[in-house]
Amino acid sequence: MKPFSELKNYAREHYYFRVRLGVAAVMVLVCFGLLTARFFYLQVLRYDYYQTLAESNRISLIPIVPNRGLILDRNGVVLAHNFFVYTLEITPSKVDDLEQTIDDISKLVEVTSNDRKKFKKLRELSRSFESVPLRTHLNEAEAARFAVNRYRFPGVEIKSRLFRHYPQGTLASHLLGYLGRINDDDLGDLETRGDLSNYKGSDHIGKAGIEQSYENALHGITGFQQVEIDADGHAVRVLSSTPPIPGDNLYLSIDSKLQDIAEKAFGQHRGALVAINPANGEILAYVSQPGFDPNLFVDGIDQESWKTLNDSLDKPLINRPLRGLYPPGSTFKPFVALAGLENGKRMPPFSIHDPGYYLLPGTTHHYRDWKEGGHGAVDIRRAIAVSCDTFFYGLASDLGIDRLASFIGHFGFGRKSGVDIDGEVAGLLPTPEWKWKRWKQKWYPGETVITGIGQGYMLTTPMQLAYAVGILANDGVAMRPHFVTTIHESKSGVSRPRPIETVERLPLKPENLQLVRLGMTDVTQPGGTAASIGAGSPYAIAAKTGTAQVVGMRQGEKYNALAIDERHRDHALFIAYAPADAPKIALAVIVENGGHGNSTAGPMARQVMDYYLLGKSPPAPGVAQSAEENQPND
Amino acid sequence: MINPRLLFKHLAFHLDHLLFGTLLLTLLVGLFILYSATGQSLERTGAQLANIMVALACMWAFANLPPQHLERVAVPLYVLGMLLLVGVALFGDVSHGAKRWLNLGVTRLQPSELMRIAGPLMMAWYFARREATLRLADYVVGTLLLALPVIFIAKQPDLGTALLIGASGFYVIFLAGMNWRLILAAVVGVGAVTPLLWSMMHDYQRRRIEILFDPYQDPLGAGYHTIQATIALGSGGFAGKGWLNGTQAQLDFLPERHTDFIFAVFGEEFGMLGSLLLLALFTVIIARGLMISANAQNTFCRLLAGSITLTFFTYAFVNIGMVSGILPVVGVPLPLISYGGTSLVTLLVGFGILMSIQTHKKLVAS
Asked: What is the DSSP letter of A59?
C-alpha cells in the first residue's frame, strides 16, 4: 500500500471524525438552548405564578389515609375493623419547651409515664414537623377539656385517627396477625416495592398473619388534599381533593364459632389445630395456643406486655400451625401404609405375627412395639387400627427410605403447603442425601425403620399434617389450603371469589386408598386405638392417633407419664376426617406435652367435628376432658 | 537550588490551563451554593472541600499519565470492573433497597463508579483497534461490551449510572463512525419495541413510568421533588433571590437539595442570570473537551476524549433537565456542584485524562 493513500485515508478519517464532533457540538447547543428556553419560561414568563406559590409555599398537600379493609369470617362476623379515636398530638418544631408543655397538658388530661416514654420514642422516629401522638383514646370529657384550653398550646392539637380493632380479642390471633407502626425495615420494603408514596400519612402496616400477607389489598390507596395554609401551617382552604380508596374487605373461610370451640377445647394446653374442608382447601379453624390479644400491638405494645408475651415459657407468639415442628409419630402410619400398597408391598391377605419387636435381619437391636408382647396376627388394615409399630418397622425397611420419601413427598411432607399467609416452614422429610448434606454422615438402615413410625429426623407442621389428611379424604386430590375466600374490592364494589386451586391429583389405586381409609375408620371403632373418640358418634370418623417423644428414652426404659416433668411429656397428635364415607372436614391436632393422642388431642377433634357436622356445641368445660387411665400408649 | 517558579511550571506542565481554570471556577461556585443548600453548614462544605482536594490530586495524577498507559490497562480494568459487578450482584450489600456496594471487610467499594471510567476506556480501545476494518459485527461486539455492565448496573438498580455509562459507550460508537443508516435503524428499532415492552409490563411498572413523565400524577411521592423544584426555580425569577435567601431551599420544602436537586437552590438564589452563567461555564468546559478530542493524536485518544466530554455534557443536561422538569427524575447528580466525593473523583479523573491527551500530544510534537 502506498503511504500516500494511507495518509489520505488518515486525513479523511480525521475529517469524518470532526464532522461527527461537529454534530455532537450542535446537539450540545440545542440541548442547552432547550434548558435556556425552559429557564426563560419558568423564571421570566411564569415568574409571578411561582413567586406567589413560593411566597409562603402556601400550597400544601395533605395525604388522606384510606380506611383499612375489614376482615370477616365466612358468615360475615367481623374479626378486624377500624374505629375513630381522639388523639392528642404535638408538633415538636412548633413547641418551644416540650417538657413544660407536656407538664401543662398533664394537668388537663392524664399523661402517664408510659405515654411520655412512648412519645419520646416516636419523636425520635419522626421528623420535627410531623405531629406525634402523646395520648391516644381520649374520652369525650378529656377532649372537651383540652379543646377549651387549646389557645394556650400552640402546636398541640386534637386529631381523630382511625385505629385497628380486633373485636374478638384473642380469637384466631395468629391467623389475623396484627398491625404495628411502620419501622425502617418496612420503609425499605415499601421503597423497593414502589409503594412509599401510598404510605404517606399511614402510621401502621400489617406485621403478621392475614394483616401482613394481604397488606396490599387491605391498605387501600391514599388520597390527598391540596390546601392553602397560613403562616402557622394551618389549613385555611381546600383547593382540590382526591378521595382515598378504602382497602378491600377480606372474607375468610374460618367459622368464628367453630374457631372459638376449637380454642376453648384446648383449655390450658399448648398446641395447634388445623381443620380443612378437604374438597376445596378452605381452612375452617386455625388454632395456635396460647394466643395473644392483637389489640395490644396496634398502638405500639408496651414494654411489660411485650416482656410477658416474649418471655413466656408457653411461647404465645409462635405461630404453631405454620412454624411449629413436630415428629408426626404414628399419624404418619396411614401414609406409610399407602406407600407400601402403591409399591405392591403388604397387599392383603398378607399379614405378620407381631412378637412385640422388630429385628433388622442380621442384627440384635430390638425395635420395640408400643405394646409389650405384640399384637399377634396383623394385616395392613389392622396395623393401622391398632397402630402396630412392628408392622411399619418392617414395611419401611422393605420399602427403603428413597421410595418411601419420594412417595410421601406428594402428600406435602417436607415442602410448604403454600397457604396464603407468610412464615410457613417446610418441615423435614429426611433422605440419605439430606443427611449427607446436613451432617456429612451416611444413612443407617435403622433410621429407615423408625421413619416408618414417624420418628427420627422427620418433622412436620400441623398445617402439613392437615393438608396430608385432606388429600386422603379427598380421594388423592390435593387442594391448596387457603384462608381468604372472597375479596370485596372497594374500588369497584365487586366481590371476587378467590379461585380454588388443585395442587396435584395423585394417581392412587382406589382399592389401596380404600384399604387405608378402612384402617383409619377402624381406629375409632371398638378395638381401635381411639375407640373412645368414635363412641356414640352418629357419623363414622376416620382417624389416627400419634405420640411424639419430647425426651429420648434408652433401650428397655419404660415411659411413665406421671413421673416426668410436665414439659417433658410426649406430644399428643391426632389426625381425622369425617364423615368417613363422605368427608366434609379433615383436621390435625397437636397437644404439646399432652401425652396420648387419644386422651387429649382426640376429644378436641371430636368437639370440632361435632359442631361442624351436627351443629352441636360441647358441654360445659371440665366434663369432656380427663380420661387418662388405661389408655394405649399410642 | 530549586527554583520555585520552575518547580511550579514543571508540576503544572500537564494541566490544560483553560480547562483547569474553568473547572476551578465551577467548583468554587459549587462550594458557595453547597454552603447555602446545606443550611450554611461549614462542616458539610468543609467535607466537600476535602473531596475536591482529593479529586484534584487524582486529576493531576492522571494528567501526568501518558495516554499510552491507559490504552494498555483498558482491558484489564474492564475485566476487573465486570468481575466486581458480578461480585456485587452475588454478594453485594443492600442499602436503601439497592445493591451497589461490595464489602471488602476494610472498605466498601462501588464498582459502578470504576465502570464509569473503565467502560468508555474499553470501548475506545476496542474501536481504535478495529478502526481500519469496521464492520457490522464490530458494532454488535461493541454494543455487547457496553450492554453487559449497563445491564448489571441497571439491575442494582442504579438507573442513573447505567444510563450515563450507556451514553458514554454510545458516544464512542457514534464517534467511531457508526453508519447514519444504522443509527436510524436503531432509533426505529427502539421505537418499535417500546409499545411491545409497554404491553408486557405490570400495571405498577407502567404507573411508575407515567409518573416519571407527569409528576402531578403522584404529587406526594415521586412527583413531589419535581413540583417543589419547579417552584424554587420559577420563584427565583430573572436575578434570583440572592445567596442564602432562597425561601424554598432554606425552608424544608426542597428535598435532596444538596445532592441531586442542588440546581434548584442555585436557580432560586441566582435566578436565570446565574443559571445561564453556569451553563456558560459548562459550555466552555465542553467546548474545550471537544477541541482536545478533535486535535488528539490517535483514534484511541480522540474517541476517549470525545466520550468523556460528551458524557459530562449528558450529566449536566440530564440533571438540570430533571430539576427543571423537562426530563424524568433519575438519580444523576449535577457534575462539579452536587455534594459527594466518589462521583467528583470519577469526574475529575476523566478531566485528568483529557489534559493528559492534550499535553502529551504537545510533547510528542515538539
From this structure: E
